[in-house]
Each structure stands twice: as C-alpha cells, then as structure tokens.
Amino acid sequence: MFHIPLTSLRAQFGDIDIYLFDQLLKGRIQKGMQLLDAGCGAGRNIAYLMRAGVQVYGADISAEAIKITRELASELAPTLPARNFVVADLDALPFENEKFDVVLCSAVLHFARSEEHFKAEVRELWRVLKPGGMLFARFSTTIGLEGKLQQLEGRFYRMSHGPVWFLADEEMIMALEREIGMARLEPLKTVLVEQERTMTTWVVRKVV
C-alpha cells in the first residue's frame, strides 16, 4: 500500500486557514470560480487556490503585501494577471458589482478604524459578491468574552497582547445580516484563545 507522507500536507496546502480549508472540503470553492481575498496579506490563504485553478484576486492596504502576492502568483499561477492584485482599502474596492463567486476576509475586520468603517467594509465585500455567492469572514469579536476585555471608547478594546482592536458583538453581526439580506450558510463559530481573544467565523450566502 502506498502512503502519502504527512509532511506533504504543508507543501500542498501551505498556511491556509483551517476554517477556510473546511469550506474547501464542503465543496464551496471550485476550480474556475472568481475569488477575492480581501486583506490578502502575503497570500497565505490563496497559494493553494492559485495552484488549484481558482481565478484568484487579492486586495490589501499594504503595497508591500501586494508586491509579495504578485510574485507568489507569478510563480504558482503564471496565467493570473498581476492586475488581479491591487492596493486598496476594503471600503473602496476597485471591482465591479457582483464580480466574485467567493469573497474571503480573514483576520482583517477587527482592524477597522470605526464602527462606520467596519460596516462600510462589510457592505463593500457584499457589493462585489455575486448573487448566490459566499462570503467567508473570520475576525475577532466579543463573543464569549463579554465583560472580560478592557473596553475603551465605543467598540474598541485593548487586547491582552497590546493592540487596540474594533470588536463587533453578535447583536451587531445579526443586525448587519438583517440589514443587508444575508443568509447564513453555517452558524457563527467562535474559538476562544487563552481567555485573551476570540475569533469568529462568519459564513453567509448572498440570496438570489
């Protein structure tokens, strides 16, 4: 019997978010789909997708991150145009309405500059998503840590590891779902990290 070495997993899938990997296993991301990684950083969540034939796009506020991602794409998927990867704030994406089958936004939304900025980012991610498409977002929230974090002004909190983050709560997320017209693909899933922060996975579909 031939065994695939466990060490090949990292070579194949890289540093992809395990919760995004779950969406791959569920068949929600397919070859040929147009997918935007909003806040793509250096491309850790899209390296495998590039090799798998997904039509990947990326946006990030960091010019250096986009430079690295373009270099990654040129190596892994040379047919992907460099123009697919753009420097942009997530509240002003340079893409047409309803362009993408899937929009990813992993570990980004808690860096919002205000509640208005957070909501504008979510609405912009929704604007570029096709009807029937999936938004996958993972971000820090107050869920599971209510009353245990150092709250500053509004929805800003001093995190135990130092930075100040904008943290939505479940009520705010649900209000956005109702306002925008989102349909849950899965229940909210929140992971508690050492009583220091929580990371919530939000997977919703754009109703046709």
UniProtKB/TrEMBL annotation:
Residues 36-136 form the Methyltransferase type domain. Keywords: Methyltransferase, S-adenosyl-L-methionine, Transferase. This is Methyltransferase type 11 domain-containing protein. Gene3D superfamilies: Vaccinia Virus protein VP39 (3.40.50.150). It comes from the Bacteria. CDD domains: AdoMet_MTases. It comes from Pontibacter amylolyticus. InterPro entries: Methyltransf_11, SAM-dependent_MTases_sf.
